[in-house]
Automatic annotation (TrEMBL):
This is alanine--glyoxylate transaminase. Belongs to the class-V pyridoxal-phosphate-dependent aminotransferase family. GO terms for biological process: glycine biosynthetic process, by transamination of glyoxylate. It is an enzyme of class 2 (transferase). Residues 114-423 form the Aminotransferase class V domain. One of its GO terms (molecular function) is alanine-glyoxylate transaminase activity. GO terms for cellular component: peroxisome. Its EC number is 2.6.1.44. It holds the Pfam family Aminotran_5. It comes from Podospora australis. Its cofactor is pyridoxal 5'-phosphate. Keywords: Aminotransferase, Pyridoxal phosphate, Transferase.
Amino acid sequence: MVPEVSRLAYTSRSAFRRVLAPFSMPRQKAPDNPAGRLSLISRHLAPVYPINTPYTVERIPDTIDTSLLPKNQTRTLSTTTIKMSQPPHATLLIPGPIEFDDAVLQSMSHFSESHVSPSFVATFGETLSMLRKLFQSTDSSAQPFVLSGSGTLGWDLVASNLVEAGEDVLVLGTGYFSDGFADCLRVYGANVTELKAPVGTKPTLAEVEKALSEKKYKAITVTHVDTSTGVLSELKDLSALVHKVSPDTLIIVDGVCSVACEEIDFDAWGLDGVVTASQKAIGCPAGLSISFFSGRAMKAVENRKTPPASYFASMKNWTPIMKNYEAKKPSYFATPSPQLVHALHTALSQILAKPVTERFAGHKAASDKIKKAISDLGLKQIAAKPDEQAHGMTAIYLPENVKGADLLPILAKKGVVFAGGIHKEIAIKYIRFGHMGVSVLDPNRGDVDKAINALKEGLAELGYKA
């Protein structure tokens, strides 16, 4: 009997499948080529309408009928208001990630939504537009990018899109992270020249001018704040020098530890690219690579002789997607993180609620207070010159008989988390104090005073006297 029942069940299922699958809709074989596969994936955006992906022959976003897309999602909650309260925790004062505002963290709890829904597309579009204001740019030919990844992904964007294998790049060396940028460029075949400065300082303008006069460089890279040393590189005069001596050279800034706490006037200073990340002074959880490129840099991408040397990091793949999102039109190449984009939207809304100049001034005032306290303790900074000291972090030499491995746990017990040293030449000789975002701009938190007192007490417990 069992075989008979089995055959009957199989026959019933087959008939049921035939009813559900009309003869006019035969099973479609997945295409073998990448363009075809991506086209097939993208059909959920607007059925029977072509969608702008990097692989379409022609961009026709205005013909997409967005009325076919899902409307705004709604969800009924059991309570009418949601109050965010972070559990007690040690204050995180490292050079990123930093402490986050309650409203930013609450944005991360946004309910799940499609990355091509009208509500999310609107949020993402506003986020990209706000980045233009953060970078102080009104140049319509410039392009912001927000991609899932860390700040390091910004290096790959530059190395795989703006520079072709065999082209020369001048890297201004100020520490661990400028070294990393140079390594990334070499991976993609760039011919890298490093102009290194002694630990705790930066190359001089005279040294940069000499290097630019000796060779033609496709790009010059400068780490605005090297997080390993707290050294701040000046951008305005540097950019003016490059434009004068080597006007075709692209000026690229690693702004991972500087954007939103150090002034960057993108248009006025004639910069070509700034790469950064979400988790530092911008004040959004880690996971987003944020970058901004000039019209001249975008032309360099368009005029490449060879295809970009990366797939996910290809600006040719991402540019039409970013343009569409900013124009509030759905598009798809790879899935973004809606929750992180919501958090970034909240963070940028907070930042731009006041003039950015006030934000820079607030960071400078807090930095001055911290650096005076460090000096009063008889301690020295890695960056010895005041005009080369970052305003969002401070790298502090330890007293001779104090070890970071002993001091940092004491600070943690006092509710303050500092970072150890990472520069290979001096790693065990110093610690790093990050002071960015709400920790210095919200006067009600008291994070800075708490950290300074903890440092004083911790050093005293280890036998140090100022």
